[in-house]
Amino acid sequence: MSQKVLIVDDSALMRKFHKQVLEHAGFVTQMASNGQECLTLLADFAPNVIVLDINMPVMDGLSCLKEIMAKQPTPVVIVSSLTEKGAQTSFDALALGAVDYIQKPSGTYSFNMGELSGLMVEKVLAAANVKPSLLSIRRNQRKQQEDCTRKNIEQVIQTPISRGSFDLIVVGVSTGGPNCLQTILPALPANYPTPIIVAQHMPGRFTKVFSERLNAMCALEVVEVTQKQAIIKGHIYIAQGDGDIVVEKLGSGLYVKPIETDESYLWHPSVSKLVDSAVACITPRKLCCIQLTGMGNDGAQEMHNAYSLGATTIAESQETAVVFGMPGQLVKKNGATHVAPNYQIASLLT
User: Fold this and answer.
1) pTM, to two decimals
2) How confident is the model at residue 84, as a pLDDT?
3) Is there a contact between 172 and 303 (Cβ–Cβ < 8 Å)?
């Protein structure tokens, strides 16, 4: 049976574009021009995925999203502008339970819609496979934390990671990443000794807003890497979107440096490139690699290579991964020393 997508946008032009792209990919579509119409259609149409604009009359996207998650939780991909305001709104939507976001086109009808169509289909397909229990991310994770039994805690403690045993932690994450990182990183104490570098697949204008958002939540200092800088304790480094990031060693010091996008890699910031650069600079047994939720396999082979050389590797389990692609590939390669739900990863590290 074909997957059903409800397209919600006040622009007839955008509805037409989404409809053409998604129906060409085999989806069955229905359309609404505002949030109120979306809620009216929700029960009868029973979509597998909703593509939801934010700025609409009658009822805006965020208000609609709250109602969707309360009445009939459904995977939602929001349509967002690549502006600072658009980034803030996107993170608000993700916190409310949206699965992912796609870029809002700008300009005339012929501009870059061809570029966006493939990405839209990919993200809608991924959203269609999201488990309903993971839609309201924060609410679900709070419940998971409450339900974390003594048995679960003891299972983690049986295979502890020695605190301070690493020179560096590198993290790869994509779809579902913001809420996942907001579960793990704020749980680390202010005196946590190991610096962390995060490659989150995200547009360039979003990573500045995201790093500021994380910094307000975390006891550790969170910074977006916009220039080469020394890697120091007590810091979390967020790779700048639409580019790549590498680790370098100069003398006895480690540095992190943004570089231009390497087109030989499919996803950016590239987890694969980050991990390879870290392995080249650090004794593998002093390196920890963490593979979190996301589409595709970015970083899985490189983390497996690091694991085979003695690095510690952690894969987020399917229990909490919005998309089990990236961590699932690492697990499939037998390259994970630990597999854990995201709410236990900070405990593993501390």
Assistant:
1) 0.88
2) 79
3) yes
